[in-house]
Amino acid sequence: GVSYNKLLAKLASDWRKPQGLFVIPPERGLAFLAPLPVGKLHGVGPATVKKLSAMDVETVLDLRNLSREFLVTHFGKSGGWFYDVARAIDERPVQPSRQRKSVGTERTFSKNLEDRSVMRTTLQEMATQVAARLQALNLAGHTVNIKARFPDFTTVTRAY
Predict the structure, then answer these.
(1) Cβ(18)–Cβ(107) below 8 Å
(2) Looking at residue 78, which CATH number applies to its domain?
(3) Which structural domain range is residue 155 located in?
(4) What pairs with residue 94 in β-bridges?
């Protein structure tokens, strides 16, 4: 994902997975954000989504229609962040050379997998890829995370 700030670049990176490039230029930032569910925004977790929903705030555009004062009153310091990100304002610096915290691989399928043997084989292939990358980087892991995302974007994760 490519854009003019960290918030939009991160959202863009999820837009055309697994191999597409998605660019959000400055003149499209607000329009891109407007229809998104508020839960897509960095820092807006399930509890906040529920609280916003009770206020009839479902989309970023709904959030954008609220004043900074209202948001700070109801969400404290986070309210100021919500006000800014609804307007595509994100001053966080991009740190391209930070220390690596994880190594992984993802695969998107055109159809849901239903055959357990295909699932096992695919998982084994992916684990082998990650192991090879760890070895090449001379790293070791502590935790294995598995994530499954469904067509409606429901996500299930497990850590071992």
Answers:
(1) yes
(2) 1.10.150.20
(3) 116-159
(4) none
Give me 112's structure tokens: 């849901």
Q: Does residue 8 form part of some domain?
A: yes
Answer whether residue 74 is part of any domain. yes
Is 72 a member of any domain?
yes
Q: Are residues 80 and 134 in the same domain?
A: no
Token pair for 37: 């569910």
pLDDT in tens, 12-59: 888 876 667 889 999 999 999 999 999 999 889 888 999 999 999 999
The model carries a pTM of 0.60
| Residue 155 vs residues 12, 13, 152: alpha-carbon distances, Å | 18, 17, 9
- Phi, psi (5° rounding) for residue 23? -115, 135
Question: Strand 145-149 relative to strand 23-24: parallel, antiparallel, unpaired?
Answer: unpaired
